[in-house]
Amino acid sequence: MVQSYRNTRKGFYTDCYQDTTPIGSIVANLKSGANTYDHSFINKATNPHKLEDFNGSAYISGDDPAYTHDGYLYCDGTEYAIKDYPSLYQIIGTSYGGRASSGIDVINGGSGYSLTSVVSITAPPTGGTQATAIVKTVDSNGAILEIDILNPGNGYVTEPTVTVSGGSNATFTVRLNSGVIQNITQANVMEFWGEQYLGTFKVPNTVTKKIVGNSPVFGQNSPTIGNLSLSVGATGGAWYLDRNQQDDYFSLGKITTTGYDNVVETVGCTIVGTQKVTVTMEKKKLPSVFQHSHAILHSIPGDSTWAGKGSGDRYLQGYKSANGKIQRWNPTTGTVLEHSHALLRNVLTDNTIATYDFMDYKGGDENVGALKDVPDISNASGAEFKPQPGYTTEIPYDDQFYLASGASNAGSFEFQTSIGNPTLSSFTSASTIGGRQVTTGGVPNYDYSQEFEYTNPGTYTIPLSSITGTPEKLVYNLVGGGGSGAAGTISGNDGGDSTITAGSTLVLIAGGGKKGNPSNSNTGGTGGNGGSATETGSLTGLSVGLNGVSGTQGDNNTQTEVDSPSNPGGGGTGGISISQSQTGNSEGKGSDGDRILIGGQSGSYSQTLTSDGVFTGLPTGGFTNITFRIRGGRGGDGVSKNTGAGFENNRGGYGAQVDVEVAQNQLSSFTNTPAGGWNVVIGTGGNNRNGGTNSLNANGGYGGQGASGRHGGGGGACTALKRGTQIVAGAGGGGGGGADGGEGGINDAQGQAGGSYPGGAGLYQGLTASSQGNIGSGSGGVGGKYGCVGGGGGAGGAGVSSGGNLGGGTGYGGGGAPGGPGGTPGGWGGHQGGVGGQQGLSEYKTTYFSSGNLTDHTDTNGSVKLDIDYNANYWTAAGGGGGSGATWFGNVDWSDVNNPSAITIVVGAGGAAAQASGNNSGSTNPGTKGYAKVGFGTISGYTGGTVGTTTGDIVESASQNATVWDVEIKGNGSGTGVAGNFKLPVTQVPTVLFRGGGKSNDGTTSSNGYVQSGTGHATATASLTAGVVTAITLGTTAGTNTGYTEQPYVYLLHGAGSGSYITSTFSNVSVTGLTLQGNSAAYTNFLLFGGSGLSTNRDRFAVLKAQDTTSVNYFGIKACRGNGVNGGDVPEEGLKVEYQLAGSASWVYIDNIIAPSATRTDPLTGMIVPACGQNQAHDGASGDTQWYTYTVAMPQAARAPGTKIRLYQERSEQGGQDHSGGGQFDHYGICEFYYFREKATTLVFVPAAGAIKRNTVDFLEYNVQGETGPGITYSSGMGCSDATMTLKSTTKIEPQATIDPDYDVPLITPYVTCKYLIKAF
């Protein structure tokens, strides 16, 4: 669009027309003297180049130049939010100031913080990398302004929580991108545009400055970003000219010197390069020969024999051919002879070896000795000689030998070039670190102030990183939980085991006491066994382990609640505590057994039978009281003259109610009845004249006949209680009522009510208790007949009795028949009212019943009611007592524990109480809980003894303080945790690397080392058994093992296998064989960099014993690095390598052999080693520590006899956490040291029976190599006299000048009449 324009002074073209200027472009706007929309710096009229501060009208209404030009910001160095102008930030970034978001942004800076405040970030899920950060800036109030990310971490799935120590109220927001805390950059700002917290940036500050040039300084083009080619949409450049570019724009020209004619100077000289020096023995004439003679045998040689002539063999001078005896001969003529000696590079120790001369065919020979297989020197040609007669081949000079004495001991010293064997040093269980004071024979004083006590059940971990110093003793007191006693028939519960676990070495188990056993019927439960003290780690034979004490058996026999209302006791006793804790809490004690009450078997029972039947559903036992209520049938009413309601005188009698109680001695057998059980026969009541009936035919009598139908009432039937078929009790029926006579009115000649109605005829005999005989039943007698107008007599009630039949009653008149057994006679009739019948007899057997009671009831029919009170609850036999827990108490040397990463403690719970449930009740107490206490003893001094100094086998000395060794030799660990508990390599297979051999290409570096595909290098694989390298196999892959011009180096790297190295056999262009050398073994110990060191200097170091490093080209270690899970803490400081020459006190830095904070390419292996970090895969997983060969190149200056190597971890000066409180942090482990040697030419004695090689003794050659190093060019090491140099004008000295800029040249220069706007959106 065409921009609106509000500035009263129009500016550039872009202000008036559609703007297509790219983002980041800077355009100029002219300014005037005063009161403009601009800053208040303006020209002073009297001096255009002096700035003066006027009070103009700028910003009075907020109308700054950026507001008057859409899309532009004023270039005044203002800081803007990236979220407001992301496109401009994408172009210029923070080149001019500001700070982009680090990924953690401050929402509220809080107060009270400092730059040393610690930033804590919650950890990611397992497998992720912990993010870390620091406080970057704070204000004067301690408010946090910026957080810097040190490690963005990875693996986060939700925004982590950020907290900072030392202050309060600071809050933060975190930006995540694919699990990583994401910062804002020019490359990704658009991806996160829209977020609130993106950071800030500043625009250039061009106030009172002018921008000039875009190619060479002060170029002709319009001002743009420095060095940018103008084009549509162009971006990039910078507002300064950097130091590297300046050399392209400036030149100092040619510099010449003058005034040096005839300048004469003496200059010291050296001879350059390598010089070959040849040493020969100068021939000398013999001054004289001692007097001697020869004994010779005369002979005449044949003509065909090769012999000396007169001018040949000097020994034949004056000799005449002859035959004869041996004679003395003194030479008379000859020449003065010269002689020479063999030159030796080394001393022959065998004095029998010497060159010698014989049968010399050439007179005046002055050589070292006679040649073996002499050639024909007279026909010599070039470097070779024609053969003597009898020889068919020529012998080159280099293959000729002198004859020598000494037989098979003879030979020559020759130079041979070979690869020297490496020196390997690894640790054993007997290895020690030298230079440390140790006390022998004394009694150590231990400080056990570092104790950990656990009294509640649970699992606990003691991180050894929290332990100050290196412990010497581990003290333990461990008790298992006590078992609980059984509650009657309910088993107790086992106590929990208490354990101490220190890696796989120390595993102590104080077993929990076993549960008390339940009772069975009348047999009490047996006691639980005591816990067992066991040890399952590799370290055995520890003391003191005691098994727990068993509980005792509970009492036999059950007891009823009736007999024992309260618990009778008798439970087995729990095993006693054998804890050594001294707390008085009886840890691990077993609880006592007890009985339980089996309930739910008490109550009452009631059943009423109104018809014949059997009582059913009876309780099974525990009877406390049983009663029967037996009711006979009521008698029938006699006929009354009174038709109203008031004829009580004619009522039938009430049936008997007999209440009997079962005898106590019959309660237990109450239900043990004959067949038929407790059953009843129910008698019914009389109905008018008819008597009641029952199934025994013991019916009530028939009412007596009365005049005019005024008959007597019938008797009631009896009710019988039977036990099986035997009647044991019964209740008689009521008597029938007598009828009224006919005389008189209603109140005259009244009949009598039956027995036992109130006022009636009453009882005949009542209730009888019998112990003898059988109870029978009988019917009631018939009522008496009327006389004249009399009423009929009431019939007798039926009854039960163990007696005979009853006769007719007296005084009853003539009426009425006698009753049956138990039945009463009927009442007498006559002229008056009839007499009422009596109630039948009732009876019970005292055999079964302890008491009986007779009363009446008003029911018409009979019934029997049974009431039972019972209580069958009982106390079980007693349960057995629980066993007590086992215990361990004692101590162990910390060195035997083998450096675990942590110690895990489990405190066993006491066995849970046995508890009855449901209707049952009762319980036992739980067993007493276990206990654990662990103490770490550090030596605080000694009492007595002799103080000495250790002598190390590999390490001469290492860092320590008085009691803490922060570099020490450790045994194999588990490879878990962070306390230096590294696991030595057993299954990690080594790799084989070939280098050199005349090849210029050793491969491409990678995370696994050199990748040698396509280089032609040989390949090989190592075989591994139980951590020992057992074989090396040369590869046969096509395209490998070819193109060598000399023997290559072969290295066995990384992984398992102590003391092993490889030598090769070379022929033609290939390696023909590999041999495994050294003393192959498995690693057993390693050197740990891991303690706290001195409080004032926490640096760690280890000095190795001196070695001859003359031919050593690489020093190496086989090492591991902590990664937070592989047994060690992540190291924050590097491991330096330094050397010290013999006789020197200074250490010289070589290189960092491990650099924890950055990648490093190993100079020998070609491995690109990643930075250390949490869960770094390079260093292994939990339980699988990875070990690699790390090396440094040995500088020439360090190659000398008696050189010491020092490994140095400079913790107090490098970055990372301080860890001044001690503990195990920043771990490295080293299991082997390597001194790799380069090819070297050495003097070797080569045996040759009876001969010495000619070219090794005729002359000696030496190559003199000059000194090398910085500042030394082509020195041969040979000196010469000073030289005189005269300068002449014909040879000018012309120095070559170069520019070495000191700083960047800004392209923004002071200017006062222009303002700049930068395109922002």
N-to-C CA distance: 13 Å
Q: Indicate the structural class.
A: mainly beta
Give the helix proportion (percent range): under 10%
Can you tell me the residue ranges where pLDDT is under 50 for at least 5 consecutive residues? 1-17, 32-45, 48-67, 213-226, 304-315, 360-364, 380-389, 807-823
- Estimated share of beta-strand residues: 25-35%
Question: What characterizes the major β-sheet?
Answer: 6 strands, antiparallel
Shape: elongated
Query: How large is the radius of gyration?
Result: 63 Å
Write down the overall mean pLDDT.
Answer: 81
**How many helical stretches?**
5
- Annotation, overall tally of beta strands: 85
Q: Would you kindly provide a written description of the structure presented here, covering whatever features stand out?
A:
The two termini are 13 Å apart. The protein is elongated and about 210 Å long. Strands 29, 59, 66, 68, 75 and 77 form a six-stranded antiparallel β-sheet that branches. It has a six-stranded mixed β-sheet with strand order 41-44-45-46-50-47, with no helix packed on it. The protein has a five-stranded antiparallel β-sheet with strand order 31-56-33-54-37. By secondary structure, it is mostly beta strands. Mean pLDDT is 81; it is low at 1-17, 32-45, 48-67, 213-226, 304-315, 360-364, 380-389 and 807-823. It is built from five helices and 85 strands.
